[in-house]
């Protein structure tokens, strides 16, 4: 079970909304979000309703200012509690759409996809076990994309505007 509290103003001030499960439309409860307190669980926040737009992974801790979770604005419109996973982590990444081209299997964090697999782009992937976060740049920087178990036949399926990929991290490493 997770718990996250959103505050309209910085430093945990103003109106707040507490959440313990997925919420597809936070705009029902507040108009802006300038600080967040995560009491338990790991959460993916989305810039737009229905889990769309830029994504931001937050784990337990306090975020007194929206810039602390790498956001460029005070717009958080939906959130998803990431399920804990205690088993193994495994995914297959492909250089082309629809699981074609060079395939590599990943079972642990990857700081640089370029260094490890000679890939700057991932066109499709299949998450077999565990939840992962794909980063647009190496060293876990840039835009973030939550990858839950399932097939992603093209980069648009995980919400990216392009196939640029720099690093991968297992969500368990955020707890």
Automatic annotation (TrEMBL):
Stored SUPFAM superfamilies: gamma-Crystallin-like (SSF49695)
Annotated Beta/gamma crystallin 'Greek key' domain residues: 2-40, 41-83, 89-129, 130-172
Role according to the record: Crystallins are the dominant structural components of the vertebrate eye lens.
Lineage top rank: taxon: Eukaryota
Organism: Ictidomys tridecemlineatus
MF (Gene Ontology): structural constituent of eye lens
Stretches assigned to coiled coil: none
Keyword Repeat: yes
Gene3D superfamilies with a match to the protein in the record: Crystallins
InterPro entries: Beta/Gamma-Crystallin, Beta/gamma_crystallin, G_crystallin-like
One Pfam assignment: Crystall
Similarity comment: family membership: Belongs to the beta/gamma-crystallin family.
Protein name: Gamma-crystallin B
GO aspect biological process, one term: visual perception
Alphabetically ordered keywords of this record: Eye lens protein, Repeat
């Amino acid at each position: 079970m997770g718990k996250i509290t959103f505050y309209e103003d910085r430093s945990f001030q103003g109106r707040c909304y507490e959440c313990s499960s997925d919420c597809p439309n936070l705009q029902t409860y507040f108009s802006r979000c300038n600080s967040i307190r995560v009491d338990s669980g790991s959460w993916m926040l989305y810039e737009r309703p229905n889990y769309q737009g830029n994504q931001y992974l937050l784990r337990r801790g306090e975020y007194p200012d929206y810039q602390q979770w790498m956001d460029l604005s005070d717009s958080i419109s939906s959130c998803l509690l990431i399920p804990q996973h205690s088993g193994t982590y495994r995914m297959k990444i492909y250089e082309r759409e629809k699981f074609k081209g060079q395939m590599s299997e990943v079972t642990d964090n990857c700081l640089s996809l370029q260094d490890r697999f000679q890939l700057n782009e991932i066109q499709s992937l299949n998450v077999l076990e565990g939840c992962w976060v794909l980063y647009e740049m190496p060293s876990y920087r840039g835009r973030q994309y939550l990858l839950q178990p399932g097939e992603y036949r093209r980069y648009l399926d995980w919400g990216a505007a392009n196939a640029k990929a720099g690093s991968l991290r297992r969500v368990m490493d955020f707890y």
